[in-house]
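Q: What changes when NAP is included in the input?
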Amino acid sequence: MSNQSASSHPRRYAQINVGLLGLGVVGSGAYKVLTDNADAIAQKVGARVNVKRIAVRNLDKDRKVNVDRSLLTDDPYEVIDDPDISIVCELIGGVQPAKGYVMRALGLGKSVVSANKELIAKDGHDAMVEAAARGVDFLFEGSVGGGIPIIQAMKSSLAGNTIHEVKGIVNGTTNYILTRMTQEGAELADVLADAQAHGYAEADPTNDVEGFDAQFKIAILSSIAFTSRVQTTDVYTEGIMRIGAHDIAHAREMGYVIKLLAIGQRIGDDAVQVRVHPALVPVGHPLASTGGPYNAILVRGDAVGDVMFYGQGAGMMPTGSAVAGDILEVCRNMQHGATGRIACTCFEHKRALPVDTVVTRYYVRMYVTDRPGTLSAIAGVFGRHQVSIASVRASAQERAEAIWVTHQVQEANLRRALKELSGIPEVHSIENWLRVED
Ligand SMILES: NC(=O)c1ccc[n+]([C@@H]2O[C@H](COP(=O)([O-])OP(=O)(O)OC[C@H]3O[C@@H](n4cnc5c(N)ncnc54)[C@H](OP(=O)(O)O)[C@@H]3O)[C@@H](O)[C@H]2O)c1
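A: The predicted holo structure follows.
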């Protein structure tokens, strides 16, 4: 058949109806991807993907996308309960009422796509159990890394590996703030205020700057990586609020940048260690050059070695891309009667180890007395707690600043040393201490 005759008789596709809950940043992105690329999507999937109904909170609000207003409703149940809709996308956020909507849709035998990291990290297990019971899909690629295809990659392409570590920069807002502090030598409060004024940070930035957003994401990634459910309460979490321009300048002089890292590690056969905290990263490390709002995630598998995923970790079109990808995956599964193929992969029960057991290097910044014997007295305290020192730099002033970098040591020992040091006369104050990830 010639191309001309093929195009003059366009193939007629079956239609799969999708309902969106939410038409904000992510909902608008998903809608735009599905409508802008509708013809190509129909050919790829073998079915026309039609957004039939969209629930929002405020029907009068201006929308970021051109949408037929008759599709909008302020009653989510008009979407969920519509018998013609077979895929429901939850793009509202928060645990409730989102969870209630997700569970109801799954209970009705519909597949669900969500980008809701908080819901998935805290209660995703319930949704996965329900999806498995109903033989439908519950997919959530958009919940971690925005447009970066990390979840599907770990569940499929990397599934043959034993994953030893997943580590990355998964929060764009804090990465943007730390990048600007590094470039401009500015203090955090000033950069944060400016980021809020320009829409790069939320009016309430708590979830980002206190590390909770990264906590949700590393709980999800670690659960998949280590085939064991990691709860948000298992994740040691520290945000960036105590990082000063001073620490960034010292780190830079020593050849490091400061990044908010999310780290999950398999420890032996039966334990994991999962944490979120700022850390010094050597400038030559691939994560060090991940700047601005970008995300990067490094996965270490026994067979594949190191694989790095990099891209825009949030935003309308990148996250819309991930949500649309999940919708297409469900459509393909539906076409082949294969929904529910990949159920919850957490079939083990590993212990989550406390942060005290972390073994790494540390940076400690303190003010000390400028007297002979001060540094050796402090080194003596470190030594008593088996903290061995790799380097020390001190300025000669009445209230001298001393920067210590340790060799690898267990965190419990470092904490004990710092506690003792805060009580000796040679130390005015311990200003900050940070982990060093080499
Ligand atoms: N923004 C990102 O870059 C990004 C990236 C990855 C993942 N996510 C996740 O994606 C989800 C959505 O985030 P977003 O940034 O798109 O949020 P958003 O811009 O605030 O949009 C939320 C949408 O949900 C609607 N909505 C809220 N409560 C509702 C209710 N009870 N019933 C019906 N509709 C309701 C809102 O309606 P109105 O428009 O009428 O107010 C709005 O359209 C969140 O879970 C978020 O964590 C976001």
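Observations recorded in class: Residues 356-436 form a domain with the Alpha-Beta Plaits fold (CATH 3.30.70.260).
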